[in-house]
Amino acid sequence: MDFRFELEKGSRKYTCPACKRKTFVRYVDVETGEYLSNEVGRCDREVKCRYHLTPNEYFRLSGKNPFHKRPVSNDHKVKGTTRPIEKPVFVPDEVFRESLQHYERNWFYLFLVDLFGTDRAEELCSWYCVGTSKHWQGACVFWYVDQFGRVTRGKVMQYDETGHRVKGCTNSVHHVMKLGKLPELHLYGLHLLTLDKLLPVAIVESEKSAILAAWYFREYLWMASGSLSTLTAERLQPLNDREIILFPDGGAFKKWQEKAESMSRKFNIRCSDVLERSLTDEQREAGYDIGDLVADALRSRCSA
Question: What are the chain's domains?
């Protein structure tokens, strides 16, 4: 479906009207390439801030008619929005294949080795198409492969040797290599649907959590949405014949519970509160997820 107003694509961020952090993505009029008013957009701090003013809400509150006089900011137009429509570009197979090596310098892989041992770490990286990147020291690539085997995108991320994400070190292979337009976003791990036609699908937010949980809880196919807000009905369409269980991060249960309820007529979906009930207040405030609990459990077992 084509929408008149969309969140700006790319890495550009502005100051959030609520939390004053530079984590704000603005809405754009796709017909004119102009921004809407300065306060119309979404903050990326989806748990800590949660600010999101949609175009519909803006027009309703302001009483302005988007089809009569466009409410645009007078700062500038979005660059490049008048170019011809681009076709999505998939990641070249040679780029994908080339990354599936050099794990000795991949800190995320070394973290998995520390938890599971070499054989299991290699197996998990193979299952989930984890590659190695030179973009940052020790960086990995989480390759998004769809149910048709197409490599649609790669998320470059830097973890330290302890498995903690390095803040500010996340990028896209399409952006780094200037590959062109990104294909539509889908769930991480979607390619696993071809491996088993019966197992229910468990969805978490982060790619790391899906990988850790996959070894520990084998009664599910584990997938990741990639972020708190990108869990949508459109992205669940390939799972319309599966049982779906959501496992939100600490502090995000209410939001994902609402999502599950809103999509329950279309999908066999529910939201698990197991994690929410097991967390301490400190863990919930820190945004603990099921991957953190798996890692803690494995470390405790090794030290016992």
Answer: 5-77 (no CATH), 86-184 (no CATH), 187-304 (3.40.1360)
